[in-house]
Amino acid sequence: MSFNLKKYQPLFYKKSYSVKIFLLMILFSFISCHSHSVVSKINEGGIEEKFYATIYRDSMGVPHVFGKNDADAVFGLAYAHAEDDFNTIQDLLLGARGKLGSVYGVKYAPVDYYVALIGVWEQINKRYDNEIPQDIKKICDAYAAGINKYASENPKIVRSEIFPLKGKDVIAGWMYQIPYLYGIEKTLSKLFKKEKPVFSSDIYLDDEYNFDPLKIDLIGSNVIGVGPKKSADGFTRLLVNTHQPWSGPTAWYEAHMKSENGLNITGGLFPGSPLVNHGHNDSLGWSFTSNSPDLIDVYELEMNPLNENEYLFDGSWKKLEVEETKIKIKILGPIKWTINKKIYRSVHGPVLKQEHGTYAIRYSGINDMRTLEQFYRMAKSKNIEEFKNAMSMQALPMYNTGYADKSGNIYYVYNALLPVRDNDYDWRGILPGNTSNTLWTDYIPFKDLPQVTNPDAGYFQNCNANPFLATGFRKDISSFGINETAGIEGHQTNRSLRAIRLYGGDSSITREEFYNYKFDNQYEKNSVMAYAIDRFIEDFNSQDLELLAAVDLLKNWNLRTDLDNKAAALAILTFPLTFDIADYKHDVDLITDRLIDSIKKLKSHYGRFDVPLGDVQVLVRGGLELPLDGGPGNMRAIYTEWKDGKMIAKTGDCFVQIIEWSPEGKVSSKSIHQFGSATNDENSIFYNNQSKLFAERKMKKVLFSLDDIEKDLYKKYNVSSLIEY
Known about the structure:
Layout: H1 17-44, E1 52-58, E2 63-67, H2 70-97, H3 100-104, H4 109-117, H5 120-131, H6 134-153, H7 167-181, H8 184-191, E3 221-226, E4 236-242, E5 244-245, E6 253-259, E7 264-269, E8 278-280, E9 284-289, E10 296-300, E11 303-304, E12 307-313, E13 316-319, E14 321-332, E15 335-345, E16 350-354, E17 357-363, H9 371-380, H10 384-391, E18 400-405, E19 410-414, E20 430-432, E21 451-453, E22 459-462, H11 494-504, H12 511-518, H13 528-539, H14 545-555, H15 568-574, H16 588-606, H17 613-616, E23 617-621, E24 624-627, E25 638-643, E26 646-652, E27 656-661, E28 667-672, H18 691-695, E29 700-701, H19 706-711, E30 713-720
Helix pairs in contact: 1-6, 2-6, 2-7, 5-7, 6-7, 9-10, 15-16
């Protein structure tokens, strides 16, 4: 979606000397008083309650935040994270406020429109005071206070459009982001095209399909739990291994939070989150992988030809809800232009009026404000029953969830907020909006989701694949009668195939084996990669000697992505991968063209195409360039972008944590980050201090006790929400 600014162009766009002088004067005035006004604003509108925290930075830069109560720890976390990545946090908060366009210009105005369209602030302003529990409000206020505190100390880098922050901003952040995480932006982008969109589960009908794995959601995650009876030493182990972009709003940040009233958790979180999102506390741990159930439905409304704001529903005309929103767009410096846009809603949800039709959107968890509360209840859980109770809130609409604890329990659930739908309709296509038969209001109960506790197999895995095969090639998990309208995955990724072979095939897994299996870098013989190569070789028809030599190299490839492997780089550059063989689009001519291009790329920089992977695939960070093994779809997942003769890693393996509990219930863990704690400060010693370890497939000890933290202390300091002005 886009906005045409031409008809809104004000007179100051004329290129006159006087106007330029006028604008420069305004800009100078804005800059000179900006710092003063921001601090004053924060001071005047700050959170009334005061918070205090002590921050310990260990030698790797990881913040350990201690507070008297949970809110104090949240306050300290916000401040510490702002020290390391303030700009990203600001951008997320700008997005949640619907202010991106006012800072970054017209390109980001659609995001602001989206915030208004799904009614983020309409819902918050109506319901926050009465529906958000007091303990969660306190958490929200504490996080806002932490960001406000940092902003008051660094006014020159502050986006004044969002300060002072309020607790409501934290809830808005979750409401704004969650639908993005399961694809609402893809649905909206299709609806905003000039032609009537086609929605289908068939990837061949997706007009955005191309041969770039980063564009077809190949990026995924791994979660694996191994119970005592399958461990050689009787330990319980859990792998936390989500695959995320290495920078931006969904890049992992590592932290430890501890309070005197029970919060004690370490792991990874996203910018803008007041809590660790996955990791472990004293008693248990958990992690997620992405799943892709059908959580979004599109309805075409039958509009009244005599009234453009009425639609047919169950035989009678019903009025659309109509409201206006103002979207501010940056023009030049502090100069902004305001556009008025109408927002429409039906009984289904948000409505879009397009030339090819009028459409309503309904999505799981619509208007739900409880996501943060669920994360908090999970973090405070002390046993499997409490954890399941927290999960049963179903305020997190998606994500496979894996769990393990000190008592030796392991647990997996295909977590999803699955609508109860009528089987008579094609829910993957556009639905008729004129009948209540297509308007779902209920969800499948949590207890009926695919799940297993302490499976006989002694382990579980999910690597973005079929949940009914979480324990291998035997159906330990019942479907509970969930029908096909749920859109539950039926495929097996290479990572799931490898996990089943490695973890499932080993009856006595040592600590070293658990670790090594996670960093496995091989493709299975029945993986999409192997299938794609076999199909191509079978259909390849050329007498070109160089191409024949390249095909022979691929034919004899052992499907590994070790640093010294001479076929891996060529294969990764050439073959487009998908999660599912059924979705793979085989086109011998197109693949041949890609092979030719890959050969040219490699030869132009290395003089040959059989280049060892470690010479080509690299981690680049702050002056470092480090060779990386692994590849797309590996357990050691690495996704790259070709630039200047290198495959530069940008996504995949990032924050990794391996947690274990001894037979006596003592917890310990190791972790690694692909960069370091200072994700946004190139001058910091923590900007890339973990990169070498990451490239070498090594991990560091997670410090969880104060004694261990103090023995490895880099810096200790206290922070208070009191803002001096």
